[in-house]
Amino acid sequence: MNDDSPWHIRDERPEAADTAASVPVADPVDALAAEIARLTKERDEYLDALQRLKAEFDNYRKRVARDQETFAARASERLVVQLLPMLDDLERAVQAAVEHGELKLEDGVRLVHRALAGMLTREGLVEVETDGRFDPHTQEALLSQPSDEPEGTVIQVLQPGYKLGDRVLRPARVVVSSGLPEPAEG
């Protein structure tokens, strides 16, 4: 059969000639079924990947919580080990007070105080500065009293405050000047 035969219908459109040669015409139902199968497979792969990721994240979260508990226990253990010698010193001071009188008790307590202060300093504990102006970030004003000092100046420390690194563990409790005293009436 030749192309010039009247029995052959020829499509003269250029795009029709290109597509007809490269893509076979398929049943639209088969094409939709293939597309649905492909999308279903892709969905299942994504669901599987998501479930694996969720399981990995749950395992990670549990591992981090376990590590934090272990770290806290080790930190407490280290602190207790450092405090044990001070406990021994206190025991010896109490025993010495019983045997030799109160003078030895005072020496023992001073020894324990010095040891505890040194250990806490090595751990990074620093006393809050209380000289000069009142600082509401590191100090707590319990009272305000008239004085010869300028207003807002710390005039007395009732309880020292402490910082560990940048964090205030306990603010210093202070008395702050309210300015010049009022003149006496007379």
Q: Which tags fit this structure?
A:
alpha+beta; 186 residues; elongated; Nucleotide Exchange Factor Grpe, Chain A, domain 2; 3 helices
In short:
The protein is an alpha+beta fold. The protein is built from 3 helices and 6 strands; from the N terminus they run αααββββββ.
Please explain how this structure is put together.
It is a single chain. With 186 residues, this protein is α+β, with helices and mostly antiparallel strands. It folds into two domains: 100 residues; 61 residues, Nucleotide Exchange Factor Grpe, Chain A, domain 2 (Roll). 55% of the residues lie in helices and 17% in strands. It contains three helices and six strands. Strands 1-4-5 form a three-stranded antiparallel beta sheet. The chain has a three-stranded mixed beta sheet with strand order 2-6-3, with no helix packed on it. α2 packs antiparallel against α3. The longest helix has 73 residues. It starts with 13 loop residues before the first helix and ends in a 7-residue tail after the last strand.
Low-confidence parts, pLDDT < 50 over ≥5 residues?
A: none
Kindly report the average pLDDT value.
81
Overall tally of domains: 2
Oligomer: single chain
Structural class: alpha+beta
